[in-house]
Target: Cytochrome P460 domain-containing protein
Amino acid sequence: MTEFLKRAALAAGLVLAAGAAEAACEAGKPGDELDGAEAGAVYDCLADAMHAGYRKKGKRWIPEAFVNDYRGWTKASAFPAAPGFHAGRFLVTWVNGAGAAEYMKYAEDPAIPAGTVIAKESFSVDDDGKARAGPLFLMQKVEAGTSPETDDWYYMMVAANGTPMAVEVISACSACHQGNYGFQGGLGYPVEEARIGN
Ligand code: HEC
Model:
């Protein structure tokens, strides 16, 4: 473990299971009692193992570069927030260079350019305070007219262990995004207090 992680863990009163292949990150209290800083400390503890997990195995139809590179994109979340969607998990959003400036206006009816890719990491903290990586959610804006049914968004999902997950994207992703957030170009955006502006 790096000095940085040790300090982050101590600062948050986290207990790290030494010797485990993937350090267990414990928040010390249930997920719904964590404030932003505490959720951030859990994220700092989990972050390396989480990214390594997403990167395991072949990605088949999902471009590997998205999964390998998203940590180098622009982070739109000031801290991991759990708004109750995506199964109540804590979420951290990253946007690639093509779309970061427009996404981070959090506008109604944004002009998101084709080529934009958004990655949303997720993790859960159970009632015993134990943190666990959840899936990586991806949205890619493709050329206008490519996928009219989803407003030209491709949706993808990678399990915490790196497996690309075959989901029926219309019902599992697009229906909620378009149905509830069509007025925001299909984007849910992080909860307001967790947004990093540009
Ligand atoms: C029940 C509604 C719902 C479903 C179903 C859903 N999402 Fe989301 N999604 C949201 C909300 C709400 C947000 C914004 C939440 C936040 O960041 O706090 C969001 C955010 C995202 C983001 C970040 C971009 C944005 O909208 O701001 C990605 C990427 C994403 N979802 C991918 C997916 C994928 C892939 C699926 C299907 C496997 C999916 N979502 C299913 C509601 C949903």
Q: What stands out?
A: The first strand starts at residue 15 and ends at 16. Strands lie at 15-16, 25-26, 74-75, 90-95, 117-125, 131-133, 136-141, 153-158. Residues 15-22 have pLDDT under 50 and may be disordered.
